[in-house]
Amino acid sequence: MRRPFIAGNWKMNTSVTEAINLIREMKDGLKSFSSVDRVLCPPFVSLYAASELVKVTDIELGAQNMYFKEKGAFTGEISPLMLKGLCKFVILGHSERRQIFGESDAVINEKIKAAIAANLLPIMCVGETLEENEAGNTNSKLAGQIKAGLKDIAANKQMIVAYEPIWAIGTGKAATALQAAVTIKFIRENIGKVWDEETAGAVRILYGGSVTAANIAEFINEPQIDGALVGGASLKAGEFIDIVKQTADIKQRV
C-alpha cells in the first residue's frame, strides 16, 4: 500500500513572520497523524525558519521550485545545493511555472535530474488546460509531459507526481473524484511505459486543484489517488489539519 501524502503549496504568500505563526498554529495538530506524509512548502525566504520549527517533528518541508544548476550567474534563482538540509522535497513543473514563466518540458526534465542528484525528492506536476480538456486532448498532453519529464531518468519509486488540471487551480472548480481517478490511472500506466509497471505501482500520485476540507474525502476514497497537493486551503491551519485528518482516517480504513 502506498503511503498517503498531503503537501501544502503556499505559493507567493506569507511573510517570514506569518509563515512562522502558521506553522506554530498547525504543528501540534499535524503531529497527530504520522500515518500520512505531511509536507509544507513555504516561500524560499521562510524555509530556514520553517526547518527550525519542524526539526523535532516528522513534518517535512518542500521548496516550490529550483534551478537545475548548482551555482553561477543566474540572478534570482535557487540551486539544489541551497536547498539541501532545508527541505526534503521540491515541486517542479507546476502549471504556474509552465504558463507564467514559460518553463518547457525539457527544462523541467533538467530540474528533476538535478533534484535527484542532490538527494531531493521531486514532486513533478502535470496537467492540461481547459481548452485541451474540452478538445479531448487530456491524455495526449499528459503522456507527452510524462515522457519528456522523465526522459533519461532511472526508475525511481520515491518520485511523487501531482496531477493538477490547470482549469481547476485556484478557480474553485475541482475535477470530480472519478475524473481524477481515471486520469491518474492513465498517468500511472504511462509512468509504467517510461519506467516499468512495478515502479509505476509504487510511485505516489496526488490530485491538486481547488482541494478543500469539504471535498478531500471524495478524492482520497479513490484507491488510485494517494493524496493531494493543496493550495489555498493549506494557508488555513484548521482546514489543512482537517484535510490531513480525513486522509489518515480514510486510508487507515482501506
Characterize the structure shown.
This protein is an alpha/beta fold and 254 residues long. It is built from 11 helices and 8 strands. An 8-stranded parallel beta barrel has the order 1-2-3-4-5-6-7-8, surrounded by 5 helices. β1, α1 and β2 form a beta-alpha-beta unit. The relative contact order is 0.16.
Domains (count): 1
Show unreliable segments.
none
Broad CATH class: Alpha Beta
| Overall body shape | globular
Strand order of the largest sheet: 1-2-3-4-5-6-7-8
Helical stretch tally: 11
Major sheet: 8 strands, parallel, barrel
CATH fold-level topology = TIM Barrel
How much of the sequence is in beta strands?
5-15%
Would you tell me the structural class of the helices and strands?
alpha/beta
Q: Fraction of residues in helices?
A: 40-55%
CATH hierarchy: architecture: Alpha-Beta Barrel
Order of SSEs, N→C?
A: EHEHEHEHHEHHEHHEHEH
End-to-end Cα distance, whole Å, is 9 Å
Total strands: the figure is 8
Using only C-alpha atoms, the radius of gyration works out to 17 Å
Output mean pLDDT.
96
Which homologous superfamily in CATH is the superfamily? Aldolase class I
